[in-house]
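Quick log. Single chain, no ligands specified.
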Amino acid sequence: MNSLLLVIDMQEAFINESTEHVVEKITNLVNSNEYRKIAFTRFINTKNSRYVKELNFDGCIGEDKKLLIPTKNHPIFNKNIYSALNEELEKYIKENNIDKIYLCGIDTECCVLKTAFDLFENGYDFYILKDYCACMFGKSRHKSALEIMERNFGENRII
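-> predicted structure:
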């Protein structure tokens, strides 16, 4: 059995008083040797993106796109959309015979949620580590996202 810990968008641009508590928790999880495979995603924004034009989010364009957790030799998958599930990650999953994926990171109601939907719809066995996810807009939005995931994927997927 090969499991993957997928750490989503642990970047400076997403850290505030609502998310800062997960940085140390996820760092400890990454360093725990609990997972054989670990991968990171990094959101890369551009000045002309919809995120800037329509949502006024100009983070992750400059220095604040750096990852906050040391990645060691673990792969980093860059993305410019909410979901982490792209061709590059799917190839990695297939090549490494990954049969379970554990999600953690920021934002629960955006990138974690969209990745979970894509994993579900593509038949992957995945789980959301609820205590290792956070939302920039606070605990109530984080909780709402978990409720949406529980409703759509089953309560057994939220651990």
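DSSP finds five helices and five strands in the chain.
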